[in-house]
Amino acid sequence: MTVDTTTRTYMITGPEPEWWYRDLVSCLQSTFGSVLLREGADPLAVLGAGWRFLHLPGDVRSEEFYYPCPADASGGTDLGAALAPHHELHARWWQPADENDVWREVREALADDRLVIAAVDNYHLPFRPAYGDVHAAHLVVIHGLDETRGVVHVSDAMPPAFRGAVPIEKFLLSWGSANPTDVQDAFFSDSRIGRRCLDVRLDAPAAPLTPELLGGYLRIDVDGFTTTGPARTGLAGYDAFAAELLERCRAGDADALRELYPFGWAMQAQASLHGELLRRCGREWDDPALAGAGRAVEAVAHAWTGLRFTGAHGLEDPGAAASDIAHHATTLRGAYVRAVAAVGAAAARL
Question: Are 180 and 149 in contact (CB under 8 A)?
Fold first, then answer.
């Protein structure tokens, strides 16, 4: 760690953060991936090990990085545990405790050689395509702070990928933005940034992935899809979600479609990573059934595209979009059923 109290420069040790990106992930998975790489872990093995459906009514926020995160016994939430239920990954949101020194916690993290994931508004970041044009909630990785030169060093794997210095005044505008409602982005604006940051920690090294270990993960995941409980989880939870979505569309409720886009991205990204992991393991272990299960889960991820984009185009007239929403929801449901069956069959052989 480099700390010069005279020049007030704080940088992590070693190389700058690595980019980690997949076509169907959001900035949430890409930033967590950078942190995991720095911890020596394989992001795909950690973020792709778990797979589930979970919808929390009333919880969806207009942010690219929204992810359903149920409260634990203490009433708190752990985003890391939600993203990686089979690993000791933990994450908590925090905000500066002192408005007169908003960089204090960032300095402390960098001095401890830890990356900081910060929420930002793309409108104020010079390297984002939306700069000066569209308000949208996003995440970037902070890996350095030079208060003498007046720059923050950030990394962003989401296209167009960027790694470099941003003027502090620009970053502060982005980090503290009200992210007001923007008609150009109905899905990721109207969500106050509030100088939020994520502290992400991997409390135990990820164990080498073996067929036995993965089989245990898959059996837990399949049980989650086939067991009915009070929460909107699994296939029964999907049915409740889809029925409510269709009912709200028929009633002309555009908010249902605004929520569909960020919520669907969370489910889509998770399915994409899980499918890729199963395909990779199937190839490496010469297990065609496991690779086929991975392709079936990836089909779920791609089926989310039709539902999400139909919702996006139907904002102006949800009632008129209802029939198409019903079609894509049914297609997605079929993909889930086939994938759960394929994963269950693969798990039984591991």
Answer: no
- Which amino acid belongs to residue 214? L
Q: Is the peptide bond before 288 cis (omega within 30 degrees of 0)?
A: no
- Pick left, alpha or beta for residue 228 (phi over 0 → left; psi -120 to 50 → alpha; otherwise beta): beta
Q: CA dist 222 to 50, 104, 234, 344, Å? A: 10, 44, 9, 6
Token representation of residue 87? 């690993």
Angle at 300 between CA 232 and CA 184, to 5 degrees: 80
- Percent of the chain exceeding pLDDT 90 equals 95
pLDDT digit string, tens, across residues 52-110:
999 999 999 999 999 999 988 888 899 999 999 999 999 999 999 999 999 999 999 99
| pTM of structure | 0.95
Spatial CB neighbours of 245, under 8 Å, sequence gap ≥ 6: 256, 260, 325, 329
* pLDDT for 1: 46
